């Protein structure tokens, strides 16, 4: 479906920003950029840190507002940023539809919005100046492709998702399914949520192994935390003899440092997808500042999230979270 | 209120059976749909999975019997797990375990002071603590997850992953603590005081009991059991996430309520809570094994919990005068 | 308005015949029949558990009888719920006041049938006017807008009675109305009942207090074990006859005063000041029973609470066995050897959901446990001991006290304090809501305790009781000690004189609705 | 109690006295309802700390944010006064939002809204039925319902958010009257109705009676069970209002709307001085609690408290408010 996107990868659509400002640029010290996102996981924490670091380098002020995964609250936070008359907003939307009216209000108030690491629906794109960063769907797609590769295009698979209803979980699951659907030899047995918790991933995997026994050939997880939880369950099942060692292959979206090391060691954990928050944050913030400066920026600055497995792990940088 | 009061002790045995009975029927039905549910290996697994909620439910039972509630346990679980894992690699597993218990004790004391001595409303005060401790977890870890560097080389693994005579250590901890705390609640003068304070605080004060201290002490127990749960979860995962404990408070309360402990205080039992915990764990596992989508699992749990409590309430009513 | 009759007439307003009611395991009423005449005061007697309350609740529509017929005003009626009974004109005034503390007097009176205007709005003006009228007819000194929780118990009771007036009830049932009232308040209540009676209202009066029954009633129906054991005309009967019908045997005496064997001074209170209580000084000796008499709200309970460490002292000292001691909590008091049987048994004396032995053990946990572990054997023995000594009837030590009669509940409270082996026992209204038999037992027990050397303080608003048991009476009014009366000078007039000036503020006649 | 006025001359005398009396009255009132003091303190503090806080834009913003969980607090005030609790309100909001938006393509604008409200009402009735007729404690009934109803919403809507397909719906959600959001006005209007119901209607007065002394209410002939069931229905209906209002404002709906809002809503009610033990409380003070929490959340954003510390600060502020509340509003013992 969204495979077209792949072909357009990195093809920065050269739509010129509507806010081609004419006035002279503001001095850096007077610039304030707002960041609206959910500070609920290590990836976001690393993003936050990188955002602060970049702001320091650019010499600008930032306001960071966390909506704790609550969708209406993100709209509230956007309005709070509008009330403070920030110069631009970097938004990691936690819902691609519900956030649009608030985005529109910011747009109407003359505040440029840069989307990072997520999109809004088509109907809202006109209120957004630029979009940067990777894409959850593609991350999921890559993890699915990787699993298909590990299984040789054939086998039975379960998908472990994050918290039901969160944008990253929805998109990654869909991406994963889209990739697996390309391989007719692969059957998806079930998909269950884990709330992004390792312990729950372990519990769920244990139940799935009880249910399917050695019928499971692969697990496609939404992030490395989930993968690692699932691996604990697999290890225990191997010890108790219900599952053959290294039979089940696991891949996931969003690589963590621990996942990286585990993949390196070899075993069930086949590979993961890099989603480096540093570049993401830096790109988003720099783009915002360029817009404030009156520069013309590409509407879309998409970049590829590379998948890796043990085979090419040495060429892959270690995630720092 | 009348029923709860009357049934507080004398009919507890019956009452417990009352909840368990419809559940056993339902479980039977679930098991026909998911035959693997009752395989010995799965039973062991479910019991082990239930131990985390279970250990916390033991502490919650004390709090509920004293007529209060503790919503802060979810965040507390996250924070203590985080501290434990952090200290494990920086200082060593021994210190980490002691620190975990110490932090659980400390937070329990704070909760106890707020609710017991300052007499703040338990629901809102511990809700506030829920938010506060979640923030503390984030600040402590700077939002990062932590993992034990060498999970294969620490005796800490024994707590969550070990086995004794083929029985998982978490089950032993759960049942051992259940026996210990059951003894404390039902056989000691302290336990009697907890029942008395929950049953009637004024009478307790008039009888020379130190009600604030007793209420506070139940929070300390809850803090300590949460710390033990944190050790199990930390050892099982060999890591800590900032969201480790999110939502646990409701699961724990649901299990304890299912076990027949009254929200009005003054009645309940450890055995009931253990049964409630185990029932809930089997239900969740069974529905998962039936292959229901998650939302159907939620709906079915809702219906089943209501039906079970309803049957129980109806059977209670029949047995009681007016 | 029906205020023509001045004498009770022979018109039967209500007749109940063959009423039966069972609860699981208990046959509460068995073929009970009786009649009520218009304008009479009909007393209903019986020990706790005899079925009085059940019968009255049936008349008030709270319970449905299993069998029997109720005829009201000449026709058969079905009293399906409280509202139906209320609409017929039958109103039950509960023993435990049936008021909502946060609502106003007017709202309480008309609760369940608040007058409405458009948009469901409560018609405040009408509500107030109707209430005012009812209150005036009863001569109340408070207004429709007063919040009930700010009123004294006696006034709260008047609010309930005002309901009867407001709804022009033809039958008003009082369930132990004077349990929380002082003598003066009770007298005032009797005046009110007579006033109702004169206007043709029938009163059913349930009480354990013989004196009141003979003072106020025209006829008496006695229940025993769910059956009518006798129907009497008050003027042709006497207390002994009623008592015999109630308990099925003769009751020797009401009051056994202890032999006075006064020992050394045990407690000395000097200048005690706490809350409403100011500058109280008195002492108690071993073997002595000191009566503390005063109106509700006079501060008598507060004195007890101050001695027992529940209320902080603002000033004053307590000397115990000659030494000044500070008692900051009930623990301190218990450690010295003081026990308090509190005024409000259900809220302060018992944990209703727990069994008798559990309640008994509460202040004695140290005694029944070893290293903090309860020795159930010891606990059982302790309970068994007191069950025998106080003849408490329970199904077993673990039977929840909620299901026991008032008398047995009170005995458990007393037993709980006797078990701490106190040197001083304070009993606040020890026989409130307790039936005749148990009452006599409790009085006998108090005497026995004093004879064994215990110092006892009895607080009561029942004059016969306080006169009957005490060796010495202290009178309290308005938070101050107003007198000390020696045994030789006991008389009701002396007591009343010592506390008057603080009786009903509305003794002065009020304008009344014609 | 005593007035602090010192009359200086005949002319100023009256006014001084009047002012003093007014001050005393305000003081007494504030002691009884300290939430307004907390609110005033918060407003002053944030105004001093942030130049943007006191702008009309931001204040109308706070009002909108307050409305989001405020709807829930209205129904909960009624229920808590009658000594019950409803933890399902957050989930019901999500379900109603999904129904109202998800059915738009097939049923138009108004019918789906009615269905959403109807679902809230129905779940409220079910909760009430379970509490009153089945005799289960409301905490357990609604705790179980909280999860189950979320399941219903996911079953209906799936995981993804649904866009509102009818423009009028979004326009209504974005509508402002003057500078104030229509949703905020709707909230205030419903609050006023709630106030009217509690204070002036038979239903309201009986609510206090049931919470204050249930037996008395039964004896007086109040149909207690029916009353409580209606109370739950009102709570469900208001929760549905909340969800639909949020959906209209955001032009989309998803099952996770309102998740965890029950905590905020109950906290607001309790901060407003309504006791969980039932029988007392005023809905205007619930408004105080709602505004306090909304200002706190907004204010902490305005003064740039670091994200993690927002959680700590809100928790701490809640505890402090609760503490002062118990210190201030100790009522004299009833005589």
UniProtKB/TrEMBL annotation, chain A:
Position of the signal peptide: 1-23
Keywords tagged on the record: Signal
Domain of life: Bacteria
Compartment(s) of residence: Cell envelope
CDD domains: PBP1_ABC_sugar_binding-like
Statement: the UniProt record of this protein carries the keyword Signal: yes
Keyword Signal in annotation: yes
Family: Belongs to the bacterial solute-binding protein 2 family.
Protein name: Sugar ABC transporter substrate-binding protein
TrEMBL record, chain C:
UniProt key word Nucleotide-binding: yes
Domain of life, per lineage: Bacteria
Domain ABC transporter, chain residue ranges per copy: 14-250, 261-503
SUPFAM superfamilies associated with the record: P-loop containing nucleoside triphosphate hydrolases (SSF52540)
TM segment ranges: none
Molecular function GO labels: ATP binding
Repeat listed as a keyword: yes
Pfam families: ABC_tran
Keywords: ATP-binding, Nucleotide-binding, Repeat, Sugar transport, Transport
Family annotation (InterPro entries): AAA+_ATPase, ABC_carbohydrate_import_ATPase, ABC_transporter-like_ATP-bd, ABC_transporter-like_CS, P-loop_NTPase
PROSITE patterns, alphabetized: ABC_TRANSPORTER_1 (PS00211), ABC_TRANSPORTER_2 (PS50893)
Gene3D superfamilies (UniProt xref): P-loop containing nucleotide triphosphate hydrolases (3.40.50.300)
CDD domains membership: ABC_Carb_Monos_I, ABC_Carb_Monos_II
Membership in a protein family: Belongs to the ABC transporter superfamily.
Xref: PANTHER family: CARBOHYDRATE TRANSPORT ATP-BINDING PROTEIN MG119-RELATED, GALACTOFURANOSE TRANSPORTER ATP-BINDING PROTEIN YTFR
Protein name per the record: Sugar ABC transporter ATP-binding protein
Record organism: Kaistia terrae
TrEMBL record, chain D:
Family matches, as Pfam families: BPD_transp_2 (PF02653)
Keywords assigned by UniProt, alphabetized: Cell inner membrane, Cell membrane, Membrane, Transmembrane, Transmembrane helix, Transport
InterPro entries reported for this sequence: ABC_transp_permease
Membrane topology category: Multi-pass membrane protein
Sequence intervals crossing the membrane: 33-50, 62-80, 87-103, 109-131, 138-157, 177-198, 228-246, 306-324
Compartments, as annotated in UniProt: Cell membrane
Keyword Transferase attached: no
The organism's place on the tree of life at top rank: Bacteria
Main location, first listed in the record: membrane
Protein name from the UniProt record: ABC transporter permease
Upper classification of the organism: Bacteria, Pseudomonadati, Pseudomonadota, Alphaproteobacteria, Hyphomicrobiales
């Amino acid at each position: 479906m969204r495979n077209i996107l792949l072909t357009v990868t990195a093809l920065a659509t050269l739509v010129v920003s509507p806010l081609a400002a004419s006035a002279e640029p503001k001095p850096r010290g007077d610039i304030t950029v707002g960041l609206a996102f959910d500070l609920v996981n290590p990836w976001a924490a690393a993003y936050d840190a990188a955002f602060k670091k970049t702001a320091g380098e650019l010499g600008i002020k930032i306001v960071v507002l966390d909506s704790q995964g609550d969708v209406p609250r993100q709209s509230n936070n956007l309005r709070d940023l509008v009330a403070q008359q920030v110069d631009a907003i970097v938004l990691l939307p936690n819902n691609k539809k519900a956030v649009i009216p608030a985005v529109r209000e910011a747009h109407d108030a003359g505040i440029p919005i840069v989307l990072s690491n997520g999109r809004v629906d088509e109907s809202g794109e006109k209120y957004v100046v630029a979009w940067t960063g990777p894409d959850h769907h593609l991350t999921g797609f890559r993890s699915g492709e990787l699993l298909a590769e590990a299984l040789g295009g054939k086998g039975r698979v379960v998908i472990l998702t994050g918290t039901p209803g969160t944008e990253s979980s929805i998109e990654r699951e869909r991406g994963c399914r889209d990739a697996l659907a390309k391989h007719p030899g692969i059957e998806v047995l079930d998909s269950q949520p884990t709330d992004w918790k390792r312990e729950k991933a372990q519990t769920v995997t244990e139940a799935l192994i009880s249910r399917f026994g050695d019928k499971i050939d692969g697990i496609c997880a939404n992030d490395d935390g989930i993968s690692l939880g699932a691996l604990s369950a697999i290890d225990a099942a191997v010890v108790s003899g219900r599952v053959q060692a290294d039979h089940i292959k696991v891949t996931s979206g969003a690589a963590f440092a621990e996942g990286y090391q585990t993949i390196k060691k070899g075993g069930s954990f086949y590979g993961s997808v890099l989603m480096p928050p540093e570049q993401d944050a830096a790109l988003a913030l720099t783009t915002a500042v360029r817009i404030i400066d009156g520069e013309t920026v590409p509407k879309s600055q998409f970049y590829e999230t590379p998948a890796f497995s043990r085979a090419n792990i040495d060429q892959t940088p270690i995630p720092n979270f | 209120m009348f029923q709860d009061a009357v049934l507080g002790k004398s009919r507890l045995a019956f009452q417990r059976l009352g909840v368990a009975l419809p559940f056993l029927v339902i479980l039977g039905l679930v098991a026909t749909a998911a035959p693997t549910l009752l395989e010995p290996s799965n039973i062991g697994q479910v019991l082990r999975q239930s131990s985390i909620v279970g250990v916390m439910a033991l502490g919650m039972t004390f709090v509920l019997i004293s007529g209060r509630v503790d919503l802060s346990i979810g965040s507390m679980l996250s924070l203590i797990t985080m501290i434990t894992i952090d200290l494990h690699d920086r200082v060593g597993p021994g210190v980490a375990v002691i620190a975990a218990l110490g932090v659980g004790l400390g937070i329990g004391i704070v909760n106890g002071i707020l609710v017991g001595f300052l007499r703040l409303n338990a629901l809102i005060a511990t809700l506030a603590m829920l938010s506060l401790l979640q923030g503390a977890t984030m600040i402590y870890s700077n939002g990062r997850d932590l993992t034990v560097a060498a999970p294969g080389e620490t005796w800490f693994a024994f707590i969550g992953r070990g086995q004794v005579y083929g029985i998982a250590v978490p089950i032993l901890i759960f049942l051992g603590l259940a026996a210990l705390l059951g003894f404390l609640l039902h056989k000691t003068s302290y336990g009697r005081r907890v029942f008395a304070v929950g049953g009637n605080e004024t009478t307790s004060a008039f009888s020379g009991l130190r009600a604030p201290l007793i209420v506070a002490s139940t929070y300390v127990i809850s803090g300590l059991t949460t710390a033990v749960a944190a050790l199990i979860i930390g050892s099982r995962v060999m890591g800590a996430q900032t969201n480790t404990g999110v939502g646990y408070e409701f699961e724990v309360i649901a299990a304890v309520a299912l076990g027949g402990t009254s929200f009005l205080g003054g009645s309940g039992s450890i055995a009931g809570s253990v049964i409630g915990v185990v029932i809930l764990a089997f239900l969740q596992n069974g529905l998962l094994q039936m292959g229901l989508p998650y939302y159907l699992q939620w709906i079915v749990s809702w219906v089943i919990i209501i039906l079970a409590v309803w049957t129980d309430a109806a059977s209670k009513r029949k047995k009681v005068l007016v | 308005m029906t205020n023509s009759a001045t004498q009770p007439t022979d018109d039967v307003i209500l007749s109940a015949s063959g009423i039966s009611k069972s609860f699981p395991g208990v046959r509460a009423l068995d073929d009970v029949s009786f009649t009520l005449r218009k304008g009479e005061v009909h007393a209903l007697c019986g020990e706790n558990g005899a079925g009085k309350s059940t019968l009255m609740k049936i008349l008030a529509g709270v319970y449905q009888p299993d069998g029997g017929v109720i005829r009201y005003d000449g026709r058969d009626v079905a009293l399906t719920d409280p509202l139906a009974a209320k609409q017929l004109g039958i109103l039950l005034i509960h023993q435990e006041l049936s008021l909502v503390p946060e609502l106003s007097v007017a709202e309480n009176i008309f609760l369940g049938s608040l007058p409405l205007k458009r948009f469901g709005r409560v018609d405040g003006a009408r509500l107030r006017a109707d209430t005012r009228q009812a209150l005036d007819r009863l001569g109340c000194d408070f207004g429709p807008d007063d919040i009930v929780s700010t009123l004294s118990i006696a006034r709260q009771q008047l609010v309930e009675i005002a309901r009867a007036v407001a709804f022009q009830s033809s039958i008003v049932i009082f369930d132990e109305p004077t349990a929380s009232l002082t003598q003066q308040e009770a007298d005032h209540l009797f005046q009110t009942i007579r006033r109702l009676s004169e206007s043709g209202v029938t009163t059913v009066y349930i009480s354990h207090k013989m004196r009141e029954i003979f003072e106020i009633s025209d006829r008496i129906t006695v229940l025993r074990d769910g059956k009518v054991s006798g129907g009497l005309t008050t003027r042709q009967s006497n207390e002994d006859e009623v008592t015999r019908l109630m308990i099925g045997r003769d009751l020797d005496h009401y009051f056994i005063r202890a032999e006075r064997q006064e020992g050394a001074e045990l407690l000395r209170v000097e200048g005690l000041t706490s809350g409403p209580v100011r500058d109280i000084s008195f002492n108690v000796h071993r073997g002595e029973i000191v009566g503390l008499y005063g109106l509700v709200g006079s501060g008598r309970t507060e004195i007890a609470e101050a001695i027992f460490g529940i209320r902080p002292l603002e000033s004053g000292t307590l000397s115990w066995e000659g030494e000044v001691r500070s008692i900051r909590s009930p623990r301190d008091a218990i450690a010295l050897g003081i026990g308090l049987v509190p005024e409000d048994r259900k809220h302060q004396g018992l944990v209703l959901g727990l069994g008798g032995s559990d309640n008994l053990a509460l202040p004695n946990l140290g005694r029944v446990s070893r290293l903090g572990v309860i020795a159930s054997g010891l606990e059982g023995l302790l309970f068994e001991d007191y069950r025998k000594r106080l003849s408490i009837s329970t199904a077993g030590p673990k039977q929840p006290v909620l299901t026991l009669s008032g008398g047995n509940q009170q005995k458990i409270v007393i037993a709980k304090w006797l078990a701490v082996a106190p040197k001083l026992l304070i009993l606040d209204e020890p026989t409130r809501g307790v039936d005749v038999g148990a009452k006599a037992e409790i009085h006998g027990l108090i005497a026995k305790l004093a004879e064994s050397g215990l110092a006892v303080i009895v607080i009561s608003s029942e004059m016969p009781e306080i006169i009957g048991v005490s060796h010495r009476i202290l009178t309290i009014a308005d938070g101050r000690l107003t007198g000390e009366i020696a045994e030789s000078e006991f008389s009701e007039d002396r007591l009343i004189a010592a506390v008057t000036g603080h009786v009903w503020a509305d003794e002065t006649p009020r304008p009344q609705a014609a | 109690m005593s007035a602090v006025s010192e009359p200086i001359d005949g002319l100023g005398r009256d006014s001084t006295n009047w002012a003093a009396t007014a001050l005393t009255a305000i003081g007494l009132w504030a002691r009884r309802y300290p939430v307004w003091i907390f609110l005033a303190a918060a407003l002053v503090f944030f105004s001093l700390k942030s130049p943007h806080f006191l702008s009309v834009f931001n204040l109308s913003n706070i009002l909108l944010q307050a409305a989001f969980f405020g709807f829930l607090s209205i129904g909960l005030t009624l229920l808590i006064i009658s000594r019950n609790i409803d933890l399902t309100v957050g989930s019901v909001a999500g379900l109603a939002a999904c129904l109202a938006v998800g059915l738009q393509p097939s049923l138009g604008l108004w019918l789906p809204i009615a269905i959403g409200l109807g679902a809230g009402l129905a779940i409220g009735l079910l909760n009430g039925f379970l509490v009153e007729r089945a005799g289960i404690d409301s905490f357990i009934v609604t705790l179980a319902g909280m999860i189950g109803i979320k399941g219903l919403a996911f079953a209906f809507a799936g995981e993804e958010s649904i866009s509102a397909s009818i423009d009028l719906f979004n326009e209504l959600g974005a509508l402002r009257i003057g500078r104030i959001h229509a949703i905020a006005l709707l909230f205030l209007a419903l609050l006023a109705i709630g106030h009217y119901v509690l204070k002036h209607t038979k239903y309201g007065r009986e609510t206090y009676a049931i919470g204050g002394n249930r037996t008395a209410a039964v004896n007086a002939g109040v149909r207690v069970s029916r009353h409580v069931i209606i109370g739950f229905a009102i709570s469900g209906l208001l929760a549905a209002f909340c969800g639909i209002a949020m959906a209209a404002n955001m032009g989309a709906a998803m099952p996770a709307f309102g998740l965890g809002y029950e905590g905020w809503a109950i906290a607001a009610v309790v901060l407003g001085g309504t006791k969980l033990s039932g029988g007392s409380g005023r809905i205007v003070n619930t408004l105080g609690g709602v505004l306090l929490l909304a200002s706190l959340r907004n204010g902490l954003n305005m003064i740039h408290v670091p994200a993690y510390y927002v959680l700590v600060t809100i928790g701490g502020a809640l505890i402090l408010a609760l503490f002062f509340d118990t210190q201030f509003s100790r009522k004299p013992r009833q005589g």
